[in-house]
Structure formats: C-alpha cells, structure tokens
Amino acid sequence: MVAGMHQSARPPKGRPGRPRSVETDHAILDATRAALVDVGWGGLTMGEVAARAGVAKTTLYRRWANKNELVVDAVAVLFDELELPDRGCLQSDIEGVVLQFGALLARPETKTALMAVVAESTTDDALRERIRSAIVDRQKRLVLLGRSRAQARGELPPDAGGPGGAQAAECTVGLIFDVIAGAVVHRLLVSAEPVDADWARRFTTLLLAGLAALEP
To answer: Alpha-carbon distance 94 to 86, whole Å?
Structure first.
C-alpha cells in the first residue's frame, strides 16, 4: 500500500444527540475486538460489547445500527494506524509499509476481527460495501502517497493528462493496493507464513518489476 497522510482512528459520525466521547468510542472498539477473540463472531452481541466497555447498550446503538457495522469500524481503526515511512526510495518505502501491515495482521485481535467480517460479508452485500468504504478505500491513501512521492523523486513517470490519464492512474492505484493487500493477507492468514524483512524485500522487488512494465 502506498499512502496519504496518517489518519487517526475515526468511527463514523454519530446520530443526533449529545456530543460523542472519543474515549467511549475507543473503549467500545477495544471491547469489540477483545470479545471477538474470546467468543468469536457467533458469540458476539451488542450486549456483550457494552458490558465489556462499561457502557449502556443504548450507547452502542446510538453509534452503530448493528454488530456488523461495529466490527468493521473496530477493524478500520486498526488499519488507520498504518503509515508509509519515507525511507528515501520507493523500494524501501513499500518494504516498510508491508512489514507494518504484516505486524498488524499478526495481532490476534486484527486477525480474528478481519477474518470474521470478511467471512460474513460473503453473504451480506451491505457489509461488503461497508468494508470497502471503511477499510479498502481509506487505505488506498497509502498507494496514492507512495506513487506521488515516487513521481516527485523521478522514480515513476508522472500521470498522463486528461480524463484518460486520471482513469489510468486510478486503475493503477487499485491494482497496486489489491496486489499488496492480497499477498500479505494470503501469506499471513491463509499460508500462515511470516511477513519478515526478506519476504518483504523479495515481494517488493517483484511488485516494482511489474509496476515498471505497467507504468506508461
């Protein structure tokens, strides 16, 4: 992934009423992830989360309509921790964010929550769309920043002008994101292999070779 400025964790806007408490939001999201690790998706209820967070169940429902929305946001705030380090070249920048991503996915709360919502989304179109908007689209900031930084260094050519150039750039950003996210998720969560420095280096070398052939 290759990215825009770091965005702080930000659950969605609440419904009309009293001002929201950031501390309460974080307590609820932390409790959601902890409950998923302990009881799994099937055992997770809004009441369980409320009890763990020390809030009334109505407090949850003022913020999230159901547990699907709540779990996606509990995952999304973890992904917002990712940043693209400026290590001076695109190869090193990508290696850095790949290692961050691998470390994030290796955390039990991230792994459990992500796999739960992805599995549930296979039969829930609304949940799949929420994952796309809250996690995937938001994290494409990393790709946008990485390409922009590499273009400024002269490592990548500038985008072509006009609507065609903008469309091609958008397609490239989406493809880069899919390749990196897909490879890291598969490596850790499917193959159960580590994302270490050597793997990150070899993967990034392969990615950049393909990117060089793809860029105009």
So the answer is: 9
pLDDT in tens, 148-198: 999 999 998 888 888 888 888 899 999 999 999 999 999 999 999 999 999
Q: What is the pTM of this model?
A: 0.81
CA separation for the pair 36, 44 (Å, rounded): 6
In this structure, what DSSP letter does residue 81 have?
A: T
Q: How many helices (H) and strands (E) does the chain have?
A: 10, 0
Sign for the CA dihedral angle at 129, 76, 86, 190 comes to negative
Structure tokens given for 101: 């991503």
Q: What is the pLDDT of residue 4?
A: 38
Q: Judge contact between 97 and 85, C-beta under 8 A.
A: yes
Chain-centre distance for alpha carbon 96: 15
Beta carbons of 195 and 90 less than 8 angstroms apart: no
Kindly report the length of the chain: 216
